[in-house]
């Protein structure tokens, strides 16, 4: 496993802790109860409910270990107020070709989720935006070709 610190926002750290609490508490208890009930069905060799619950328990414990590792390596980086885009900033970009606007929060790779508007600072778009101010134009190479964006705002 990696021993390098992982940048994370305070919000991302809180979400990570909440997920870990959920898995270590209610979820673990639920699976343990399923195993207990399945054991009562009899012969464990041919008890599919028991084996399914044990497999789910193994997946859960692996996930808990991975989340604990992430938590151990997490270093909270607070986005400082300012006009330049940086880790933790919320940015709005306008695609110069289509005119479409998109908004992202620049976060660490482990908490990135485009569906939630969280863009990894390691992504090409974020790398092009970091250090820029509202009104700057940035060019980004993407698999679909080069794109030109205007940084509309930085919060």
Describe this structure in words.
The radius of gyration is 22 Å and the shape is elongated. The longest helix has 30 residues, at 10-39. With 155 residues, it is an alpha/beta fold. The protein has a five-stranded mixed beta sheet with strand order 5-4-3-7-6. It has a two-stranded parallel ribbon with strand order 1-2. The chain is 40% helix and 25% strand. The two termini are 34 Å apart.
Jot down its keywords:
single chain; 155 residues; alpha/beta; 3 helices; 7 strands; 25% strand
SSE order, as H and E? EHHEEEEHEE
Helix content: 40-55%
Strands side by side in the biggest sheet: 5-4-3-7-6
Distance between the termini: 34 Å
What portion of the residues fall into strands of 2 or more residues?
15-25%
The description of the largest β-sheet is:
5 strands, mixed
Low-confidence stretches: none
**SS class:** alpha/beta
Structure described in brief:
It contains three helices and seven strands, in the order E-H-H-E-E-E-E-H-E-E.
Write the layout of secondary structure elements.
Elements: E1 6-8, H1 10-39, H2 48-73, E2 74-76, E3 90-95, E4 101-107, E5 118-120, H3 124-129, E6 137-142, E7 145-154
Helix pairs in contact: 1-2
């Amino acid at each position: 496993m990696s021993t390098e610190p992982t940048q994370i926002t305070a919000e991302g750290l809180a979400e990570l802790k909440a997920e870990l609490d959920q898995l270590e508490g209610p979820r673990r208890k639920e699976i343990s109860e399923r195993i207990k009930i399945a054991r009562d069905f009899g012969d464990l060799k041919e008890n599919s409910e028991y084996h399914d619950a044990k497999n789910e328990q193994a997946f859960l414990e692996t996930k808990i270990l991975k989340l604990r590792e992430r938590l151990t390596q997490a270093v909270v980086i607070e986005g400082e107020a300012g006009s330049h885009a940086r880790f933790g900033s919320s940015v709005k970009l306008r695609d110069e070709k289509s005119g479409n606007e998109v908004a992202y929060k620049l976060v660490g790779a482990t908490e990135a989720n485009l569906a939630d508007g969280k863009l990894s600072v390691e992504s090409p778009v974020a790398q092009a935006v970091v250090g820029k101010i509202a009104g700057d134009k940035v060019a980004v190479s993407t698999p679909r070709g080069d794109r030109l964006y205007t940084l509309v705002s930085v919060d």
